[in-house]
Design a protein that fits this description.
Blueprint: H1 9-22, E1 29-34, H2 44-55, E2 62-67, H3 69-78, E3 83-85, H4 88-98, E4 101-107, E5 119-124, E6 140-143, H5 149-161, E7 171-174, H6 180-188, E8 193-197, H7 200-206, E9 215-217, E10 239-242, H8 248-260, E11 269-271, H9 277-286, H10 299-305, H11 307-330, H12 335-397, H13 404-432, E12 440-443, H14 444-458, E13 466-470, H15 472-476, E14 478-481, H16 483-500, E15 509-516, E16 519-526, H17 533-538, H18 554-564, E17 569-573, E18 580-589
Parallel strand pairs: 1-2, 1-3, 6-7, 6-8, 13-15
Antiparallel strand pairs: 3-10, 4-10, 4-11, 5-8, 5-9, 12-14, 14-18, 15-16, 16-18, 17-18
Helix pairs in contact: 1-2, 5-9, 12-13, 12-14, 14-16, 16-18
């Protein structure tokens, strides 16, 4: 039989033989191997032949010492070995406890170095009541031992993930070695199911020790690179690890020899050390090995689990004690000083109260100033429109005969701008009271066209240089906005464009509106002198202006309005001619279902 708990022992010994023949070390390298059965492991003949070759080799002596799990741990603790070869589970435990470090990982013909070890839960093929691991509660189960990684712990993790604890089984027995005993117990019906290492069933069938089709694997996995049937996740193969006391040069030399050893005829070899994080995750989930303290409720277990919190509390208590001691020593000396400090504190509180009242008064004055400035800035345009409408009305009154339609149009315009003025005042009042603005669902085309038409009424002289370019898709987009605020943004940008083009020989202002995915992009471009880089970086700052009569609030207000609507605004110089382009975006809203 060529499969046991340590099916790769012959590979380990073969590789180590080649290593010993290739290394000319003065002292023998002591290799601790997890092999509880030693010469009785089922591969005793091969092991004896390999040891005989080592004794007669001309290279440095290489001692392979077999241990069980407890013995190997003790050997590491006593530093009686230089390297260890063990299963993935014990490696993680020794790594946490003694700081051993892996230098290579076994590469087996089945699976890959990081996906090679697992468990197969065997049942008789005739057991129709056992089809998956979830059927095991209420049935008996046999495994190798509580410390066996592939012979119990990997299967335990799968049961734990299914919410099945060992107490849910009718019986849990550990048979030890050899693994043939577990297989025979399942075949005889002494036990309902048995946990063995992956590939044992296939090897027994190939050796003629188990008839094909008599046993089957519960919950077999497929498509993970392993040719053998298995019931669990796969974990890294056996590592070769150096003790912390092993000289680094010795570990490096052995690692080079292992990795340069050709693959054997039966497909075994060595690979670079792989990641054993999945094994740590298994042990942490099951609270075993280095994570055993997680299940302890003793003072030691609680201390290990909550040591960061306890350390923090201890530091706090220490600081508190030192502080108390310091205060205690200074009480008498500072009694008189404390009385004086109380008087000074009362005086300081009175002064602070007076300062707070002054600051509140200053804040009220500042807020009043900002509101006044905002009103002055935003009311300028509707008042200008009212003035234009009024002048137009007076001119029409001087004409005979009077045109009622023209008079009505001018009157409606005055009323509309008065209502707009009231809306601005109301909005400023809302801002002062921190009330949310009212938003409406509006179509982009009419909203923007209305703002442009209003500006033409406010600035009749700019009507000829102003052009709105909006495609059909953009015009049909729906926006959830405060119409008055968006109109205010358009009027501010257009007014700035008019001011920028006053000295242009052929002034031109273009408004380009485009739909981009779920956004509407509105760009206002003029052919004025543009702006410097320094001006562009401060263009949207409050009270920053390049105009002598400007307040420096227009673009700052536009920036705030667009951001409140979820959009962005930016300024850039035109690349294909003179002028400045200010672009802002608004999110479109889908049509209601």
């Amino acid at each position: 039989m060529h499969h046991s708990l340590f099916p790769r022992f012959s590979v380990f010994a073969s590789v180590l033989l080649l290593t010993a023949l290739g290394c000319q070390a003065a002292a023998p390298l002591r290799i601790g191997l997890l092999d509880p059965l030693g010469e009785r492991s089922g591969l005793g003949g091969s092991a004896a032949a390999i040891r005989n070759l080592l004794r007669h080799s001309n290279g440095s002596e290489l001692r392979i010492i077999s241990y069980d799990i407890a013995g190997l741990r003790q050997a590491v603790a006593d530093h009686t070995v230089d390297f260890v070869i063990t299963n993935s589970g014990q490696y993680i435990t020794l790594e946490h406890e003694f700081g051993i470090s892996r230098i290579a990982t076994l590469a087996a013909p089945r699976g890959t170095p990081d996906r090679a070890i697992g468990s197969a839960v065997l049942v008789r093929a005739s057991r129709q009541d056992l089809q998956a691991l979830s059927d095991l509660p209420g049935h008996s189960l046999m495994a190798v031992s509580p410390d066996a990684f592939g012979g119990w712990q990997t299967a335990w993790r799968e049961l734990h993930a299914l919410g099945i604890s060992p107490d849910d089984l009718s019986a849990l027995r550990f048979a030890g070695f050899p693994l043939q005993g577990i297989v025979d117990a399942v075949r005889r019906g002494d036990i309902d199911a048995g946990v063995v290492q992956t590939c044992l069933l296939e090897d027994l069938i190939a050796a003629g020790r188990v008839p094909a089709g008599e046993l089957r694997v519960l919950s077999p996995h497929h498509g993970d690179g392993m040719s053998c049937r298995h019931s669990t996740r796969l974990y890294p193969d056996w590592p070769v690890a150096a003790l912390r006391s092993t000289p680094p040069e010795t570990a490096r030399r052995l690692a080079i020899q292992l990795l340069s050893t050709p693959t054997t005829a039966d497909g075994y070899g060595w690979s670079i050390a792989t990641d054993y994080g999945p094994v740590s995750a298994l042990m942490q989930e099951l609270e075993i090995g280095p994570y055993l303290y997680l299940r302890e409720t003793s003072p030691r277990g609680l201390a290990l689990r909550y040591w960061p919190v306890l350390l923090g509390l201890a530091l706090l208590l220490l600081l508190w004690g030192l502080h108390s001691l310091r205060v205690e020593r200074q009480v008498q000396r500072r009694t008189a000083e404390l009385r004086q400090a109380i008087v000074e504190r009362e005086q300081a509180e009175q002064d602070a109260q007076a300062q707070r009242e002054q600051l509140q008064h200053a804040a009220r004055l500042s807020a009043l100033g900002e509101m006044s400035t905002t009103l002055v800035h935003e009311l300028a345009q509707p008042l200008a429109a009212i003035r234009n409408y009024a002048h137009g009305l007076l001119r029409r009154l001087d004409r005979t005969p009077l045109d009622p339609a023209a008079l009505a149009e001018a009157g409606h315009g005055v009323v509309e701008q008065v209502e707009r003025t009231e809306a601005i005042i109301d909005r400023v009042r809302h801002l002062a009271r921190k009330r949310p603005t009212d938003r409406e669902r509006r179509q982009a085309g009419p909203l923007l066209a209305g703002a442009v038409e209003l500006f033409r009424c406010v600035q009749p002289s700019a009507a000829a240089v102003l052009k709105l370019d909006i495609d059909a898709d953009a015009a049909s987009r729906m926006l959830n906005v405060d119409p008055l605020q968006i109109e205010q943004v358009m009027l501010n940008l257009l007014q700035n464009a008019v001011e920028a083009t006053r000295r242009s020989a052929e002034p031109a202002i273009r408004i380009h509106v485009r739909a981009e995915a779920d956004w509407l992009s509105i760009a206002v471009r003029d052919n004025g002198p543009g702006a410097s880089e320094a001006t562009l970086t401060r263009l949207f700052e409050p009270f920053y202006t390049t105009r002598e009569q400007g307040l420096g609030l227009g673009l700052s207000i536009c920036h705030s309005i667009i951001e409140r609507h979820g959009g962005r605004v930016q300024a850039q110089l035109a690349v294909d001619g003179p002028g400045l382009i200010i672009t802002f975006t608004l999110p479109c809203t889908p049509d209601p279902a």
